[in-house]
Write a structure and sequence with these properties.
The protein is an alpha+beta fold and 140 residues long. It contains five helices and four strands; from the N terminus they run αβαββαααβ. Strands 2-3-1-4 form a four-stranded antiparallel β-sheet. The protein is globular.
Length: 140
């Protein structure tokens, strides 16, 4: 199964955390389409998925920053050391937000929604994992 947007249950879980003022980091695992799918936006120039994601990122970084977030790491994924043999990722990003609410506000903003179609066109599959800082319980 491929994932590009959160399910309603996943959105509910995020909304349940909205009152927690703790900073969060979002782990993004991204796999791009060979050819971007701009079916709903025929005015967009054809390109590959990585180029479509660059179009998205060009606006997303400033949008994230306007909600107090920042990209703290980005890089190319080369190999899976542990995981399914058929699972591969092209890029990995870590994006910090001041809180879950800040992330939710950004993702639901009109500004973000105006260019999010580039992400949809670009992504074949993805994972987005919410992380909070702190030692795992077994290290304390």
């Amino acid at each position: 199964m491929k994932f590009t947007w959160p399910s309603s249950a996943q959105l509910e879980a995020l909304n349940a955390r909205a009152g927690d003022p703790s900073p969060i980091t979002m782990l993004n695992l991204l796999r791009y389409r060979a050819e971007a799918d701009y079916a709903g936006h025929p005015e967009a120039s054809p390109c590959d998925g990585k180029t479509a994601y660059a179009r998205y990122a060009e606006q997303a970084v400033a949008c994230v920053e306007s909600f107090g977030g920042r990209v703290v790491f980005g890089g190319a994924a080369h190999a899976t050391a542990i995981g399914p043999d058929d699972e591969r990722w092209d890029d990995v990003l870590l994006v910090e937000y001041p809180s879950t609410q800040a992330f939710l506000d950004m993702a639901s903003s009109e500004r973000y929604q105006a260019f999010a179609y580039h992400r949809e066109a670009a992504i074949e599959d993805s994972r987005l994992v919410l992380i909070t800082a702190g030692k795992p319980g077994y290290l304390t």
